[in-house]
Amino acid sequence: MSALLFALLVPEPAGSGRSAGRNRLADGIAIGSALGYGALMVRLGDATAPGAAVPWPMDVAIGALCALTLVVRRRWPLGLALVLLPFGAVSVMATGAVTVALFTVAIRHRVPVVLLLGTANVLLGAVYFLLQDDPPYPLWVDFVVRGLVTTAAAGWGLFVQAYRRLTSSLRDHAARLEAEQHLRVDQARLTERARIAREMHDVLAHRMSLVSLHAGALEVRTNAQPEEVSLAAAAIRTSAHEALQELRSVIGVLRAGPAGRPEPPQPDLTDLPELVDSVRATGMTVRYTCRVPPAGPSVALGRTAYRLVQEGLTNARKHAPGSPVEVLVDGAAGEDLRITITNRHPGVSGSLAVPGAGMGLIGLGERVTLAGGRIEYGVHHDTFRLHAWLPWPA
Known about the structure:
By secondary structure, the protein is an alpha+beta fold. It is about 60% helix and about 10% strand. About 30% of the residues are buried.
């Protein structure tokens, strides 16, 4: 019952599937109410008196026709009310249709218009009184009855108007909130996918540089022993396989929709020993020192530190192959997390040097800046040093 009442008070948006059925039901209730109220007034009023303005059968016929015109009240509420008002001066039965028309005007129009039509409807009671030869009731009775009914209809209509406006604003607000939520979700997804795309350089460059290094060694060392060739080929195969796995993982995340699988966990500071071991397995000399407390920094800070070390080792392997690399990670909560990577600078790159565009260091600078830290790198004498400071909150 409450749902039906709400549907009548607050119609569905135009064009919705249930709006047509609701409108037909509302039209039936309006016409039925007008006929019922008019018949009651004919029964209780003076329409059947000998000196009535018109004979009561004609009064009923006029009122019934006026009630049927209420089917157009939704399209032309003000015009219909202006047309029906004069009939209220000659027909008691028509007062039901006039009251429903005033109620519809109160829903659709401003208060001054409603007050003007309501006052006209009450004053037309005097016209009906004057048209009778011998009125059975005094004039003030007509004024009181019409005034009360008109006030009730206009007041209820204005309440429905305010209620519809409130409900419409709440619907619009809910729709905007839902749209904004979808936008935030989409934006967060796009941001995360862009971040993952930037990770591709850090991850794949590390793997592919190993492939390039060992392939170049095999190309130059034509007199290598079979064991050495086998070891290099195994390293190439392993690095290529890991690169493909990383690429599949990243592409899978980038292609995943809203219901796609979550991104696998990214490496952090605790994965640095494994990274160093994988580099040492390729024949590279790495002296790794970690002076970070066991508790360690946050996951985000640890991930940034991991990418810094990974890119530093990749650069050293590309531009200074065969040179030992020193990696120092230290710091504590409330201080900076400091990362230092040093290796001998070869001067002019040899024939086996892997070309690079410097995008790795630029990416590191962006990553460190986003973390609120700073980074310095350059050549001092014959040593290349990369030093980064990352804020570590207490």
